[in-house]
UniProtKB/TrEMBL annotation:
Name by which UniProt lists this protein: Holin
Keywords: Membrane, Transmembrane, Transmembrane helix
Transmembrane regions listed in the UniProt entry: 6-22, 34-50
Organism: Turicibacter sanguinis
Protein origin, superkingdom: Bacteria
C-alpha cells in the first residue's frame, strides 16, 4: 500500500516538473504540443508506475490547465466573499 501511494506521489511530481520544464522551454513550444507531450507522458507513466493510465491522464490535464484552474478558483473565492459582504451589509441596513 505504501509503495503504491509513493508511486502516485512520484508520478504527480514527475508530471508537475515536466510541465514546468516544457513551459519554460526556449524558444517556446506551442501549447498543443506541450499538452500532447504531457498527456502521452502521463498515460505512459500511469500505465507503468501505478497500472492506471487514467490517473496519469488526469494529473497531466491538471498540470496543463493549472493556471486556468487557479484563476477560476480565485474568481469563485472572490465572488463568495462579495456575496457574504453584501449579505452582511443588507442585514446591517435592515436593523
Amino acid at each position: 500500500m505504501y509503495l503504491e501511494l509513493s508511486n502516485y506521489v512520484v508520478l504527480t511530481g514527475i508530471l508537475i516538473v515536466t510541465g514546468l520544464f516544457l513551459n519554460k522551454w526556449e524558444p517556446p513550444i506551442k501549447k498543443q504540443y506541450v499538452a500532447l507531450m504531457l498527456l502521452v507522458t502521463g498515460v505512459a507513466l500511469g500505465h507503468f508506475m501505478v497500472d492506471n493510465p487514467a490517473y496519469g491522464f488526469l494529473i497531466a490535464g491538471l498540470v496543463f490547465y493549472k493556471d486556468e484552474l487557479v484563476s477560476e478558483i480565485k474568481l469563485v473565492k472572490e465572488s463568495v466573499l462579495e456575496v457574504k459582504k453584501e449579505k452582511s451589509e443588507l442585514k446591517g441596513e435592515s436593523k
